[in-house]
Amino acid sequence: MESGKVSPMQSLINLIRQQLKRDPGWKEYYEEQMDAMPTSTMTASYLELYELEREAALAYKIDHYEQAESHIQSILDRGLLNDDELKGWYKEKSCKICQSV
Known about the structure:
The chain is mainly α. It has helices at residues 8-21, 24-36, 44-61, 65-77, 84-100.
């Protein structure tokens, strides 16, 4: 290994030691990094999305395909998705559910 370079394993060991020893410099760095992160990545729209997905899965599981498709369509209609590929995936899922009817 070149002079002055630390192996990845040694870097990990050093990091763990800093954490275990509660190195004040590490704590300050960690707090700065955590403070720089958005305070809330879980928004109401995510919760609504997950709830609709859950309802769709439960309906599908008990052979209520039209209800399951309705929940998936609600996800698309309510504008809960901002990624075109993800929208396409939900549309495909909706079509597959419709084929189950």
